[in-house]
Amino acid sequence: MLTKNVALPFAVYSSFKKQTLSNVPIAKPVLICVLEGTKFIGADNDVQCDSGSFVLLPNSPSIHLRNIPRGTEYFALLIEFELSDFECLPSLDGPTPGILQADINEALQQCLIQFVNCANFIPKPLWASRRQEILLLLQHQYNHNLRNMASHLELSHQVHRLISADLNAEISSQLLADKLALSESTLRRKLRAEGTSVQDIKDRVKLGVALHMIQTSFTPIGVIAERCGYQSQSRFTDKFKQRFGLTPTALRKTRMLD
């Protein structure tokens, strides 16, 4: 049995009503195993992931998702990888998939069961090795060059990490530049070359954490807003809807039975 209220190396997302989410930031590569319902990925539903299948998504600043219950609910297991996890993978001559999607076979199922069951019993520093086992199995089974799925936009990743360290801190561009030993103008120029900005990364970090909290808990919306660095719940609601296409309360209702 899993212990409640402790950090775990995986998450469970569920809903009883359809969820349509725009511009979802994928901060780190993530394996999504759909156990009930269907997940659509892309603005035009480019990828369909039905019950009993998985999708491995690379880190991306924005992706469109739809979660559709079948029968009673949508239910999925999510495992987020660190970029460093991919360094264990050998480089292959095979293709690098933009997205890897396939059925959950017996080998992957047993690997996932072991991963979940050991979560309470192995020290946190060993979680990386168990995540790497999953990646090695996927690369072995599908002969794809998964190593290159982890996008290393080095500066964006460093800024993301600094902002994530304290969501309530009002960290300025100048302070970020100082921490990175850059001038503020150089920081802005290099981020622009990576297709982003300090403010965009701030929004992705804060709203991404808020989205995860709404999907995995019933913490009051006002508390989530405060924990994610928003002094005003109404401001948080506006930013959330602007980003994802629905309010935090509307998303919360999809996880509740009528």
Automatic annotation (TrEMBL):
InterPro entries to which the protein is assigned, alphabetical: Homeodomain-like_sf, HTH_AraC, HTH_AraC-typ_CS, Tscrpt_reg_AraC-type_HTH
SMART domains: HTH_ARAC
Keyword Transcription regulation set for record: yes
Keywords (A to Z) from UniProt: DNA-binding, Transcription, Transcription regulation
Lyase keyword on record: no
Top-level taxon of origin: Bacteria
Domain (HTH araC/xylS-type) ranges: 157-254
GO molecular-function term, one example from the UniProt record: transcription cis-regulatory region binding
Pfam families: HTH_18
Gene Ontology cellular component list: cytosol
PANTHER family in the cross-refs: HTH-TYPE TRANSCRIPTIONAL REGULATOR GADX
Name listed for the protein in its UniProt record: Transcriptional regulator, AraC family
Native source species: Marinomonas fungiae
